[in-house]
Predict the 3D structure of the following.
Amino acid sequence: MGKFIVKRLLGLIPTMLIIVTLSFFMIRLAPGGPFSSEKKVTPEVQANLEHKYHMDEPLYKQYLRYMSDVLLHADLGPSYKNKDYTVNQLIGNSMPNSLLLGVVALAIACLFGISVGLFSALRQNSFADYAGMSLANIGLAIPLFVVGPVAVLVFAMKLKWLPTSGWITGRAGLKTLIMPAMTLGLPYFSSIARLTRASVVETLRSDYIRTARAKGLKDSTIMLKHVLKGALLPVVSYLGPAFAGIVTGSVVIEQIFLVPGIGNFFVKSALNRDYTLILGTVIVYSLILVLMNLVVDILYGFLDPRISYTSSAD
Amino acid sequence: MKKLLLVAAAVLSLAVIGCSKGGASSGSELILNNGAEPQSLDPSKIQGVPEDRIYKALFEGLVDYDPKTCHAVPGVAESWERNEDGSVITFHLRKNAKWSDGTPITAQTFVDSWLYYMAPSTAAEYAYMPAGVIKGAADYNAGKADASTVGIKALDDYTFEVTLVGPVPYAVDMMAHYSFSALPLHAINKFGADWTKPEHFVGNGPFVLETWVPQEKITVVPNKTYWNKANVFLSRITFLPIENDTTAYNKYKNGEIDWLTAVPLEMLDEIKLDPNYHAAPFLSSYYYEFNVNDKTLKDVRVRQALALAIDRNELVEKVTKGGQLPTGAYVPEMAGYTPADGFTFDPAQAQKLLAEAGYPNGKGFPKMTVIYNTNEGHKKIAEWVQQQWKKNLNIDIDLQNMEWASFLDKRQANDFQIARAGWVGDYQDPSNFLDLLRKDSGNNDGRYNNPAFDALLDKAAGMPDGADRNQVLHDAETLAIRQDAAFIPFYIYVTQNMIDTNKWEGWYTNTLDLHPYVGLKLKK
């Protein structure tokens, strides 16, 4: 197992290098640059701006300079647009918020998703089953930019239970966390509910469950110890990329609820041609994605006794 | 399973019980939406409106803006006078002007600050403002001359002398802008790029920086060393960087924002009925720019025909609906200045001109493309224009929307036929609008080129303020716009703010949409 993990971690390096290099050159292909503005600056000022940010150097030199900063000093560079902050500071400030939001959203999605899925599977084809799956379908079908504002309208403006938007860090922040987390978690809840239901239904029919029943084990023991473990495999593989996606934030949710997270930077940095911030967010997203896939694979090894990583390497 | 659901429900209800309604401003705290996360708090690095709003709280130049007229009122300078021909201004600084860390502000502070701002290495984007009016500054900013040739001097600690390129009547009004700010060079040199963080911040404005949480908020509190602190009544200002107008509007309706600086287009019908909606003419222009090098648009009759064939009144009544002012001229009305007699809605004349140019009833007119940056408002206007030209001239045009940076790139490279454009005045003088059309202006994307026009502007630049100068500028505008049809003007923007003026005293609409915080207070 240990060897497997080390091998996968080493494989991270070429993957990340390729991603960063491709991105570095691709973003500079887009028309315009970080200093495009409607009131055009004089050519002299433009030249000075470019000199300040080393943009007058040949491209390969800029690339080498960037890579050495990142690899040797973990310095993602200054932000071209938010001039008082470095990319490290911007991402450092926003990642915890996105992480918190993402983890809570996913936790809620898992909690409700697995419960509803399990419930539906056990009461297959009953009213409860249809109700649960309909709810899941609605959660997937209705886009976030509809659910979000409707939630704001109902819970904030009409019922006045929660603030319309904004973000408070710390304990008082619970009230600003609820709506965005639930809204963000909704489509994931739906997928998890459906996956769980399908998987549980299939697992219930398998031989080893029949054996457990035949052995005379209690229903609840069978459910929690044997069925769930096997049935959750598809859910776990879904969770890997889902975690990366949810944590790096839905741009829509962050805009509607004014969450100061990293999702905002994805779109804004591209529109602003803020080269360093774009690369910073690409690096963060790629790292999370690759790492979460690794975590999922490891979890698989624990959950499914049929899988072993010690002999055949991957 | 049921137990799990019960637990979840319990947690949720606890959260609901434990909270209160969103916090409206208490006491004399002002909360406003600032439209975007500021690029910087350093006056030498900023160039946008959100940054300007924060700048006005944290810094002060020689003069400030009068909240009603936007003309200059004393700031760090108590008084000033000009010499005989108007080209030299002598400012008398007040003796109790200090930075928030106690360091005194002297005439030398301004010399050093302005030189720093205009230095080539600073690469300030608004350097063209001081460089355009101060003698020797343009060459210094271009790196062609050194600092000693720039016409600014500290005659003594409290006397600051500025030599201009000419009589420049609007020079003092300009100096309230952040490109003429005092800069805390002692803090900049000590802390480098971090000087704008709350723990190192130094400013000389009515407020100082309290907190800055990127993407979340910026708060400022009164500056104890500010000379006019007797007239500072707010205990805190909170700037929220909200980009989505609807989100901000919801917050405003819920009492979480006091002053809304922009309104969502889709809610305009509802907003216009609200007495707290304040629309006022904005010193600006919305227009389409012609590429005068295009083979069809080279012919001035074609350009004039296109400009005459649209009903601007219908545009502002049915399409934009925000109270914008339709205009066939380009320069907005200003004190003493009468805009040119611009284009009217004259489809008959338009058709005649188009026929003379060789396209009777639109026959044979090549398909033109209008480019605009992606935006609901621009789209509606472009579609309406497309319709108007079809109806009144029987020609077909294509519309192409582009993402902002790509759009700018294309337009600035003169790679278009007709492009949407807008210009917001930096100061109240027609030359700020007309300079765009000079042959060598960096903003002349359409490449309009008329030596007679440039000559008129040069002539006005050497004249003192008065009816004669305004007449010359009027003639220049008539030449470029009505005669040569370099642009199709549409309307003057309106400033759109929402604030309860029954609650807040000292807030006024004005033509530059600049709102100083000194004097602003809650009515008792």
User: Anything to note?
Assistant: Chain A touches chain B through 62 residues (CB under 8 Å). The two ends of chain A are 11 Å apart (CA to CA). Chain A has a mean pLDDT of 85. The CA atoms of residues 107 and 267 of chain A lie 26 Å apart.
